[in-house]
Amino acid sequence: MLAENGWQDFSSPSHWTTWQGGEMEPTIEARFRAFHTKDTLQIQVLVRDNNLCLFDTPEKAMNGDSVHLILQQRNPDGTVKQRAATVNVVAVQCDGKPLLVWRAWNAIKTIFYEKSRLHFQDLGNDWYLYTINLDAAEMSLDLSPGSMIGASVTVNNHSGFARDGFLSWGGGSDARLFNCLKIE
To answer: Which of 50, 74, 153, 156 is the most buried (most CB within 10 A)?
Structure first.
């Protein structure tokens, strides 16, 4: 359900997954919206978090407060496209710098995207805006009208002591559960 100004709110407990020992109910709020040009997919993620916990290295980024996007080109009807690349993006404010990195949960090496960018803003009153500009060619995405992109948007939450859990729209890392973004 789209809220005012096209924001998709996924703050409800039904979108929350807790980590062992974490909070049973979400202690954060999250919503997102998407825009595009022929060359760029922009995803804005608005997060309310009264305890922003950031880590100083990209290798630890997913354990702190961060946004994780997983995208996959789909057929026009939304079904999985044969041999479509899966794009894995972590957006994090790290050591005072906004970073977009590729990092699987078990990766040894962090890979930085070259053309895609993150703009991170502290909006005040515990609200933060992640503006993620994804270069279509770098992400292997077709942004022509009528195309479909399978998508998952995850907001990770860390209490300052341990990882609490995450809010997710689109099934987390399971591509079978992705929601779809239709390019118009």
So the answer is: 153
CA distances in angstroms from 154 to 38, 47, 142, 147, 161, listed in the order given: 25, 11, 22, 22, 20
Kindly indicate the confidence band of residue 107, based on its pLDDT and cuts at 50, 70 and 90: low
Residue pair 149/169 in contact (Cβ under 8 Å)? The answer is no
pLDDT in tens, 140-175: 999 999 999 999 999 999 988 888 999 999 988 888
Distance of alpha carbon 29 from the chain centroid:
14
183's tokens: 């390019």
Ordered domains of the chain (ranges, CATH): 30-182 (2.60.40.1190)
Amino acid in the structure at residue 78: G
**100-to-4, 92, 115 alpha-carbon distances in Å:** 27, 7, 10
